[in-house]
Design a protein that fits this description.
By secondary structure, the chain is α+β, with helices and mostly antiparallel strands. It has one domain: Nucleoside Triphosphate Pyrophosphohydrolase, CATH 3.90.79.10. The protein is built from 4 helices and 9 strands; from the N terminus they run ββαββββαβββαα. A 4-stranded mixed beta sheet has the order 6-3-8-7, with helices on both faces. Strands 5-4-9 form a 3-stranded antiparallel beta sheet. A hairpin with a 5-residue loop joins β1 and β2. α3 runs antiparallel to α4. The longest helix has 13 residues. It is globular and about 45 Å long. 32% of the residues are buried.
Amino acid sequence: MEERVDILDDHGKPTGKSCLKSEAHLKGLFHPTVHVWLYTKDGRILIQQRGKHKETHPSLWDVSVAGHVASGENVKTAAIREVEEEVGLAISERDLEPIRTFKAIHKISEDFTDAEFHHVFLCELKEPLNHLTKQDSEVDALDLVPLLQFAEETWGMANTGKYVPHGTPYYKTIVKEIKGRL
């Protein structure tokens, strides 16, 4: 069953309306999502390769965990749920470090526009990579990469086409925030 999402205005404020996720994408309506970046104290960041059958950015590398906030769902509750679903890791609210919210619009096709407010969190990864269980329907692979390599590949001089195009300011914020916690 397809989930419902709450509709937001251009400033990320609830409108009091909700609709099916597919309708929000069809009409380009703003709705909330969560991004959780998992990092290790030794300076590595968990990235996921999106499933090859995903409608948006198939097979590209992306945020550790991302997903839609269901209608009526608290943002932190959605983040905890998505981490459990996508990588099999149980976390709590106190593990989530809110960073900021990014407004993003990606026109995928004539009838598909991702108009989202990404609520971005950091979370320290204390488990080894081989203890994580990827959600096969969403994720093709998981990898831990050094933060410097990630920075170079997302907004430096190499491999920008390897990642979902969230934009340089987004990726710089993630790198800076993680670096500040090491």
